[in-house]
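Page 42, continued from yesterday. The earlier attempt failed because a stray header line got pasted into the input along with the sequence. Redoing it now with the clean sequence only.
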Amino acid sequence: MIAEGLRIRPADPADAAALAAALLRNREHMKPWEPYRPERYYTPEGQAERLADGGVRWFAVDGDAIVGAAILSGIVLGPFRSGSLGYWVDGEHTGRGVATALVEEACRAARDELGLHRIEACTVLDHVVSQRVLAKGGFTPIGTAPRYLHIAGEWRDHHLFQRLLHDDPPPGFPGSVPVNGDRA
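This time it went through. C-alpha cells are written below.
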C-alpha cells in the first residue's frame, strides 16, 4: 500500500524541473546504486532530454514534489515483448510501500497498455531492500551477471530478475488480441 497523501501518475514533459529537483535532493541517497551522472543530469534541461528518450515513466508524487519514479526502458515488441524496469524512491519516503506501488503500476501498464509479456530488473548484489520489492512484485531471480553495470566507481555484479506478465500470444499471432498502437 502506498503512503497516505501520495499518488502515482504517468510522467509528463512538464515534470523536468520537479524531477531534477528530486534527483538533486536524493543524489547522496542513491549514490550506492546509481552510475556516475554528469552535472547536467541534475538540471531541468537534462531531465527534459531524459523525459523524451522513449522510456515510459510513472512518478510517485506528494503534492507537486516527485518522491519516486519507475521507468520501463529498452522496450522491444514483436515476439519478445519485453522491457527493463528501473525505480527509485526519495530517501525520506523509503519503507512506506512507494517502490512496491511503483513497480506494481509499471507491471500493470506494461501488461494492459503496452502488451508486454515480461519485464526484467536487476540489483547490485547487496541491495536487499530492492530485491524484496521485486519479490513482492512477483519477480523471480533468473541469474547473476558478473560486472554488469559500472556503479559507484567499479563494475558491479548484479542479480537479474524477471516477471512474466501473461502467456497470451503476441499481437498478430493467430487468435491474439491486438494491443492499442502495437507495431508487432
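Notes: The mean pLDDT is 93.
Reminder to self: strip header lines before submitting.
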